[in-house]
């Protein structure tokens, strides 16, 4: 009997041929029945989708239907996998359906939908265009192409913004390293919010600067101070009097500018890059080639340029010159403390008896 024939062997006798025809007919009948059962399960709703997949799989496994009929089975299974959110399986089934019958427009449509769900937008666009070429009147395919085209455009614009943000951040990071500038953890972000320096087209850094009046612990903020400017330019000659300076001791000629030395540890370059990308489209980007290295912390003495504590700023120097001092770690943005030589507070400050609140 043909039932016991070895795989791959040809029927020899008329009886064997007859048996084989009968077995094939039974398998065809079973495949069609499994297909119909699968269709009925789909109509019954979500609770029966898994059963529908099982029936379509059984129909496929009969291995006796024509390529075009088998293509429909793979396409139907792709449809159910789409309904279940099994997008990778849906795409695999749809692609197999197309391989078996390139004119199966439903399979092309399902391949496009699965590709869209997997964010394979170029592939989804290609499938839509292929489907419209085969069926120019297919409105569903045209609508899907519009959706895919719009999403592809949005993705490309987003990727361009991410790339631009990463390039700008890395350029700024390189500018820090070239200048010997060290960035540490933020100290006063509650006063300023997220602020970052900007590198212009001439490779000049523009810094946001926080000015703290140590005596009153009030603040001013300079949004954009060019690194090539000297410190006195932070103050406008026509600035109104400070409301708490009742004795008018904080005049331009009376104030001095200080920075805190020996405070903080330089962040690794990956952390600095993360800070520069914060708040941009590139904040979630994975960057490579940014090893966790930082400049070693400089040992500090008691006084002078290598000291810890408050260091007076020479107002004839540019911001660039001040920020690259080896004893200065910038707490994200430069922070300068302002005191007046005319106040009683000044003596305590100059004697090192005052320190910023922790």
Description:
- It is a single chain.
- Strands 1, 2, 3, 4, 5 and 6 form a 6-stranded mixed sheet that branches.
- The longest helix has 41 residues, at 139-179.
- The chain has 2 domains: 19-153, Serine Threonine Protein Phosphatase 5, Tetratricopeptide repeat (Alpha Horseshoe), CATH 1.25.40; 182-283 and 306-351, Phosphatidylinositol 3-kinase Catalytic Subunit, Chain A, domain 1 (Ubiquitin-like (UB roll)).
- The radius of gyration is 36 Å and the shape is rod-shaped.
- The protein is 47% helix and 10% strand.
- The protein has helices at 14-44, 49-61, 67-84, 87-100, 105-117, 121-134, 139-179, 189-192, 269-277, 319-323, 345-350, and strands at residues 198-199, 205-213, 218-226, 255-261, 309-312, 335-340.
Layout of helices and strands:
Layout: H1 14-44, H2 49-61, H3 67-84, H4 87-100, H5 105-117, H6 121-134, H7 139-179, H8 189-192, E1 198-199, E2 205-213, E3 218-226, E4 255-261, H9 269-277, E5 309-312, H10 319-323, E6 335-340, H11 345-350
Parallel strand pairs: 2-6
Antiparallel strand pairs: 1-2, 2-3, 4-5, 4-6
Features:
single chain, 358 residues, alpha+beta, Serine Threonine Protein Phosphatase 5, Tetratricopeptide repeat, Ubiquitin-like (UB roll), 6-stranded mixed beta sheet, 11 helices, 47% helix, rod-shaped, disordered N terminus, TPR repeat, TPR-like_helical_dom_sf, TPR_rpt
Instruction: Sketch the topology as an H/E string, one letter per element.
Output: HHHHHHHHEEEEHEHEH
Rounded mean pLDDT score: 88
CATH homologous superfamily of the largest domain - what is it?
Answer: Phosphatidylinositol 3-kinase Catalytic Subunit, Chain A, domain 1
Measured by DSSP, the beta-strand proportion falls in 5-15%
Report the span from N to C terminus: 93 Å
Question: What is the approximate shape?
Answer: rod-shaped
CATH topology of the largest domain: Ubiquitin-like (UB roll)
CATH architecture call of the largest domain = Roll
Which CATH class of the largest domain is shown?
Answer: Alpha Beta
Which sheet architecture does the biggest sheet show?
6 strands, mixed
Unreliable stretches, pLDDT < 50, 5 or more residues?
Answer: 1-5, 295-306
Count of DSSP-assigned helices: 11
When the domains are counted, the total is 2
**What is the CA-based Rg, rounded?**
36 Å
Q: Percent of residues in helical segments?
A: 40-55%
């Amino acid at each position: 009997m043909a039932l016991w024939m070895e795989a791959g062997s040809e029927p020899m006798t008329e009886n064997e041929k007859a048996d084989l025809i009968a077995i094939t007919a039974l398998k065809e009948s079973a495949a069609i029945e499994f297909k119909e059962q699968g269709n009925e399960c789909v109509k019954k709703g979500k609770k029966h989708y898994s059963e529908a997949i099982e029936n379509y799989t059984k129909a496929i496994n009969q291995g006796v239907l024509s390529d075009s009929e088998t293509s429909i089975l793979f396409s139907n299974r792709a449809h159910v996998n789409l309904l279940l959110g099994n997008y990778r399986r849906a795409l695999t089934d749809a692609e197999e359906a197309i391989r078996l019958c390139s004119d199966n427009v439903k399979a092309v449509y399902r391949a496009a939908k699965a590709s869209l769900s997997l964010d394979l937008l170029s592939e989804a666009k290609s499938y839509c265009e292929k489907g419209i070429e085969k069926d120019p009147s297919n409105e569903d395919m045209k609508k899907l192409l519009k959706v895919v085209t719009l999403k592809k455009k949005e993705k490309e614009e987003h990727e361009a913004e991410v790339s631009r943000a990463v390039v700008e951040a890395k350029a700024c990071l390189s500018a820090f390293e070239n200048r010997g500038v060290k960035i540490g953890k933020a100290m006063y972000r509650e006063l300023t919010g997220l602020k970052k320096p900007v590198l212009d087209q001439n490779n000049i850094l523009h810094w946001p600067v926080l000015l703290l009046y140590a005596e009153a612990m009030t603040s001013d903020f300079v949004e954009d101070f060019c690194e090539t400017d000297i410190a006195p330019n932070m103050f406008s000659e026509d600035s109104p009097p400070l409301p708490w300076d009742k004795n008018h001791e904080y005049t331009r000629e009376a104030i001095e500018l200080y920075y805190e030395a020996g405070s903080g540890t330089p962040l690794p370059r990956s952390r600095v890059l993360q800070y520069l990308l914060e708040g941009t489209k590139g904040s979630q980007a994975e960057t490579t080639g940014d090893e966790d290295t930082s400049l070693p912390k400089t040992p500090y003495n008691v006084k002078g340029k290598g000291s810890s504590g408050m260091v007076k700023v020479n107002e004839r120097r540019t911001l660039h010159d001040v920020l690259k001092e080896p004893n200065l770690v910038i707490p994200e943005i430069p922070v300068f403390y302002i005191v007046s030589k005319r106040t009683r507070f000044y003596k305590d400050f100059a004697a090192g008896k005052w320190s910023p609140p922790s």
